[in-house]
Write a structure and sequence with these properties.
The chain contains 12 helices and 19 strands. It has helices at residues 104-113, 143-169, 183-194, 211-217, 220-227, 235-249, 291-302, 341-345, 358-376, 384-388, 406-419, 449-459, and strands spanning 2-3, 24-40, 51-66, 74-81, 83-84, 87-91, 117-121, 135-137, 140-141, 175-181, 201-205, 277-279, 286-288, 392-398, 427-432, 466-472, 475-481, 487-490, 501-504. A hairpin with a 2-residue loop joins strand 8 and strand 9. The longest helix has 27 residues, at 143-169. The protein starts with a strand and ends with a strand. The relative contact order is 0.11. Its EC number is 3.1.1.-. Keywords: Calcium, Disulfide bond, Hydrolase, Metal-binding, Serine esterase, Signal. One of its GO terms (molecular function) is feruloyl esterase activity.
């Protein structure tokens, strides 16, 4: 690592103001943070593993700027460690946050603990939700803010952070990286598509790349029981159905471990469990599975379709935790705030989306895709410029992701590979059976994904597999996940040994 002497200045007067075309810097603040200490769990350090950060000194630089003519005020926060590894690692956001939110301390803390200069942006939204900024007035979406969230702030962040690194250390970063999951994964893909020179390597995991489709699809299993004249199911019913699906489909991959590794072969019918008696985890009492629960599960697994049965978008895989689609005693699922259809598509904050008919839902689905693909979707398969720039892109996605369907990422990867036949020269996508959204679940979180990306960028060593540790019903096992479309297949040995598995096409 490069050691920066204690005499170096960390002050606004010592650090040059970054120059961003089309933007005006309003302020630059800088101050030392001494003896920074933080335990970073793997569950909050996507693409990386757990880390104990001890007594790190860094210069915290906060740049606030605006785009003249737009009513915005964007903040980029950059941490510059005293002991620097000559690399920059930008970190992504989550949900509706571009960054600089509750998890950023873990993302940036993990990076700073490994010697990276690290950066995040709030895209001008602070730590607020869309109900605070989406509408200028009823019927009028705040498109300037949405463009910042969608893509505009991402390139600004890269330019600002690199300028700060150059000013503080006297040299630019030898390599620059992006690391994100979920919305951070969408941001990573957007960077590869729109700003191919921004970063040398991008880890864009569980990406919400087809944002309008994915977010609108979330409503479908919530509305499906209502359209059938049923009440919303209970969460414990959906837990039970998930357990039944795993019990039925787990053995189909050849290893009984409580993980569905071959979801395409899962033929469990949720309606076969209707009227079965089980113990509800929320009440501790026996109950019979309702038809509403079967309808919701089928809708979640198959994905939204039109009234005529035509495909709209993908569903999540059986085995994913879909309990959030149900209600628990004392709660009303319809009381949760709506952040997409009401605000952005209908542009009416007071609209009750539970009143939508299936026909109206179909119309709004198409309208959402039409209005917001250019702003929020990162599903352009043309990564030619990114490849030409020498960039490397690595993605993992949990096959039990309850939030963003794995099949959406499969669809995107296939689209890229059809356009660029030698896609694996610069883009590799790994699916992890049993893994939930970014982390969690029984499946293995690829905690070495970022290190594999760095070796690929700096040494030209493409990752042939990623090691993971799964927590099966029969204990913990060390296994591998393979670059799609290859699958990890056990070839002798035991199911707890990485060496027992090979990637097979």
């Amino acid at each position: 690592m490069s050691h920066i002497g204690p005499a170096i200045e960390c002050s606004p007067s010592a650090i040059a103001t970054p120059a961003v075309f089309g933007a005006k810097v309003l302020s630059l603040e800088a101050s030392w943070v001494k003896n920074f200490t933080l335990n970073v769990p793997a569950d909050f350090n996507y693409n990386h593993g757990a880390q104990s950060v001890q007594d790190v000194d860094f210069c915290n630089v906060t740049v606030t700027y605006t785009h003249p003519g737009y009513d915005d005020r964007i903040t980029v926060e950059t941490w510059l460690p005293r002991n620097w590894n000559q690399r920059l690692q930008a970190t992504g956001g989550g949900g509706w946050r571009a960054g600089r939110f509750v998890l950023s301390q873990f993302f940036m803390g993990g990076a700073i603990g490994e010697g990276y200069a690290t950066t995040t942006t709030d895209a001008g939204l602070g730590d607020t939700m869309p109900d605070a900024w989406a509408l200028k007035s009823p019927g009028n979406v705040n498109l300037e803010y949405l463009h910042n969230l969608g893509y505009r702030s991402l390139n600004d962040e890269a330019i600002i952070a690199k300028d700060l690194v150059r000013s503080f250390y006297g040299v630019p970063p030898a390599y620059s990286y992006w690391s994100g999951c979920s919305h951070g994964g969408r941001q990573g893909l957007m960077l590869a598509q729109r700003y191919p020179d921004a970063y040398d390597g991008i880890a864009a995991s569980a990406p919400a790349q087809s944002w309008p489709e994915f977010v609108t699809a979330v409503y479908y299993p919530l509305l499906a029981p209502l359209w059938a004249g049923e009440q919303s199911p209970m969460s414990c019913e959906l837990e039970f159905l998930t357990e039944e699906a795993v019990k039925h489909c787990d053995p189909k991959d050849g290893i009984a471990d409580g993980i569905i590794s071959a979801p395409d072969n899962c033929d469990f019918d949720p309606f076969s469990a209707v009227n079965k008696t089980f113990s509800c985890s929320a009440t501790g009492k026996p109950m019979q599975l309702s038809k509403a629960a079967a309808i919701a599960a089928k809708a979640a697994w198959e994905g939204p379709t039109t009234v005529d049965g035509d495909f709209l978008w993908y569903g999540v895989n059986p085995g994913s935790d879909i309990s959030s689609l149900g209600v628990v005693p004392g709660q009303n699922i319809t009381a949760s705030p709506d952040e997409w259809l009401s605000l952005f598509v209908l542009k009416n904050q007071s609209f009750d989306v539970t009143r939508l008919s299936h026909e109206e839902y179909d119309r709004l689905f198409r309208l959402a895709v039409k209005e917001y693909t250019d702003v929020m979707a990162a599903n352009d398969p043309d990564l030619t410029a990114f490849k030409k720039a020498g960039g490397k892109l690595l993605t993992y996605h949990g096959m039990a992701d309850q939030s963003i369907p794995t099949k959406g990422t499969e669809h995107y990867y296939r689209a890229v590979s059809q356009l660029i036949p030698d896609v694996q020269d610069f883009y590799r996508y790994f699916e992890s059976p049993g893994l939930a959204h970014c982390a969690g679940g029984r499946g293995g979180q690829p905690t070495t994904a970022f290190d594999a990306l760095r070796k690929w960028v700096e040494n030209g060593t493409a990752p042939e597999f990623l090691p993971v540790r799964v927590n099966g019903t029969d204990g913990e096992h060390d296994r591998i996940v393979c670059p799609y479309p290859a699958k990890a297949v056990q070839q002798g040995g035991n199911g707890s040994d990485v060496g027992s598995f090979r990637c097979v096409h």
